[in-house]
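Hi Y.,

Following your request, here is the sequence exactly as I used it, all 297 residues.
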Amino acid sequence: MTLILRSHKGHTLVTKASLPAIIITVNSNLRKRNQRTWRPSMTTIFITRSVVVFAIMTMCTVFLFGQNTDPEALRAKQLNDKAVVESDLGRFEEAVSLLIEAVKLKPEYGIAYGNLSAALFHLGRTDDAIIAIKKAIDLDPASARNFSKLGSIYAEQGKTIEAATALKRAIKLQPEFPEKYYNLGCIYIRQSNWSDAVSSLQQAAKLDPNNGQIFTNLGFALASLKRHREAIAAYTIAAKSDPADPAIRYSLANQFLLAGDRNSAIAEYVILKRLDPTLSNKFYNLLTADRVLNLAK
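Below is the corresponding structure, written out as tokens. Let me know if you'd prefer a different format.
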């Protein structure tokens, strides 16, 4: 998972931590199109990518600190900015100490609570991270970013119901970004809720049609519903995005075989044999079994 720490200078710090299981991440794919990385990014996880967001952060700074010389407010800002630097260096314990001091000085400092949550998450203190991000939400209930962070932390804990609830709230607040639909779709995959997973991932694909990872997971959900032709279409787009990924080629070949298109399956097998001999041998066994079954009919 990727969490963003924010400073009042408008700088962002992206740090990484893995989410467990199959496909819950917010990839750098979702932030940098045509770059493949779900080897979790779900993530998500949290994006500052526009001048609008920068402007909002600047306005928050003015609102919190204005042009006054309140020494406690200025000191809290300095502590937050220093914590961002410490986190950038991977010194999360130091960042936590600085941020705790910052929110003691300025209890309404929502940005610092969000940064505190991220630092705690990277230390594996997910319960404390939830407390911090909920405080940030209390201070700014209209922040889709904070609800998205909350959903990702719940996902890390395996609390998929709570994660889905938080991500739905994030989508309601900010429906124009694909990351939130992607993460929600991956939560549904964890729940084996294939229909809702397809719906969420299709929406993510509409918003980010060049992202191969979205189509990989969409193909997986469609295949789980035995909608093989639609899965083939999704995996084909994913393969164009990353033609050297053997896992995508294997999945595509398998879907061709299940759809009864043996010739296309063999064509994918030839490509797979060059990319990954182990997976190609595995698929060769499937081809052999399929042929035996057809001969037995």
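Residues 81 and 237 are 42 Å apart (CA to CA).

Thanks again,
Q.
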